[in-house]
User: What shape does this take?
Amino acid sequence: MPWPTLNDPVHDSQRLFRQLLAAMSEPGTVHTLEAPTPPEGEIGTALWGTLLTLCDLDVRVWLAPALDSAALREALAFHTGCRLVAAPEQADFALVTPAALRDGPDFAQGSDEYPDRSTTLLVALDTLGTGDGAGGSWRLSGPGIPNQRTLNVGESARPLMRRLTANRESFPRGLDAILACDGRLAALPRTTRLEEVA
Assistant: This one.
């Protein structure tokens, strides 16, 4: 089954890009993206819409083995023309699951002179919502967050969140992340401070 693309590529990509900017500027807020639904459920609507919006001929993408498939590779090549890379540290964007981050891999962190030359993680989650849950809740603070905000990403996302917590140690270098579950999406730029809710 072929993977769908945006109905109106110009206007739809502009709309989705504005939503992504809003998510980045207000970390931890959850947005619903109206985008085509891919035939393989591991990625979901929000991540597929993000890939269609952000990827082009100049973009390098790394796929975690759990999400890699011939159908996805073919769809990305056909709809975006992006370059798929074998080494995660070469990627502009990395499509991952939290489990893929448990023991690595190494991604580009940027440098003090060029912090923008880092990898942005596009993370497929099982859970994404605001407020405290039974587990997997994190308290967010920093730029774009009045006082504090709480985001629930589920227990399985702990490797991801611990990795993002380490951004503080190397700022301005570090990783930015776009988190998605089905059609919902939230962003955690490297400026966000994370603390697990006990």
In short: The first helix runs from residue 9 to 25. The radius of gyration is 16 Å. The first strand starts at residue 31 and ends at 32. Helices lie at 9-25, 44-54, 70-79, 158-165, 167-170.
